[in-house]
Write a structure and sequence with these properties.
2 strands, mainly alpha, 4 helices, 113 residues, two-stranded antiparallel ribbon
């Protein structure tokens, strides 16, 4: 029962505490699913805006793998952004990647501690 004058806990706090309590195998599956989902979304964004050099025309898979390279900061060099729109998407993905990696490192540290 929630008291009228007591502030409620934010939803993100509940998600965080839930991730601290979930089993390691389930957390691993959630991380893999999240990684694939984020890269699928950014791959779709690259596919829609175009501008990825050396990506085969009409190949979503090339755009998906470019997203994986960007997210993981691998950057093999065979594909690279060649338009302002692709650079904007890549900048957004780089930011999301840094934030997600920081959150995951903090979560792993909290689970081990």
């Amino acid at each position: 029962m929630r008291l009228a004058n007591k502030p409620s806990v934010g939803r993100f706090s509940d998600v965080y505490h839930g991730l601290l309590r979930v089993s390691w195998p389930r957390l691993g599956l959630m991380l893999v699913a999240g990684f694939l989902a984020v890269n699928a979304l950014f791959g779709a964004a690259y596919f829609l805006v175009g501008g990825i050099a050396n990506a085969r025309p009409g190949s979503y898979l090339d755009h998906f793998f470019f997203s994986v390279h960007t997210f993981g900061t691998i950057g093999y060099g065979s594909m690279y952004p060649s338009s302002v729109a692709a650079e904007v998407v890549m900048t957004g993905e780089a930011l999301v990647s840094v934030v997600m990696n920081a959150i995951l490192c903090g979560l792993a540290f909290a689970r081990f501690a």
